Amino acid sequence: MSDTISKPSEARERATSTGDLFWQETDVVQPSVWIGRYRGVMLGIIEHRDPEGFTATTHRGRGLGNFETLEEAQAAFHNN
After folding, report:
1. Bridge-partner residues for 67, per DSSP?
2. Which of 15, 20, 25, 56 is the most buried (most CB within 10 A)?
3. Which of 29, 1, 20, 19 is nearest to 11 (CA)?
4. For residues 35 and 27, is the Cβ–Cβ distance under 8 A?
5. How many CA atoms lie within 13 A of 36 on its CB side?
6. At 45, which helix (H) or strand (E)?
7. Backbone angles phi, psi at 76, to 5 degrees
8. What are the extents of the domains in the chain?
9. If you ran DSSP here, which 8-state letter would residue 9 be given?
10. Using CA atoms, how far apart are residues 16 and 80, in angstroms rounded to an integer?
11. How far apart (Å, rounded) are the C-alpha atoms in residues 10 and 18?
12. Above 90 in pLDDT, residue 60?
């Protein structure tokens, strides 16, 4: 993962941490992209796309689906 994505000035952690899993919103890639990490390892990304909603994709490129809310998209990673 690039150091530029981890800089606090360019990315901010969302208040959606659960244990070792947390989501970091970044505007480096594009607005409305969240990068999920588990114990420091990239888990996947969530993108907000209109009109589909929130699209969740694993770090291996497997689509987990489209969801109405960010919380539903984040929960998809717990279920897989």
Report:
1. 54
2. 56
3. 29
4. no
5. 26
6. strand 41-49
7. -60, -30
8. 3-78
9. T
10. 18
11. 22
12. yes
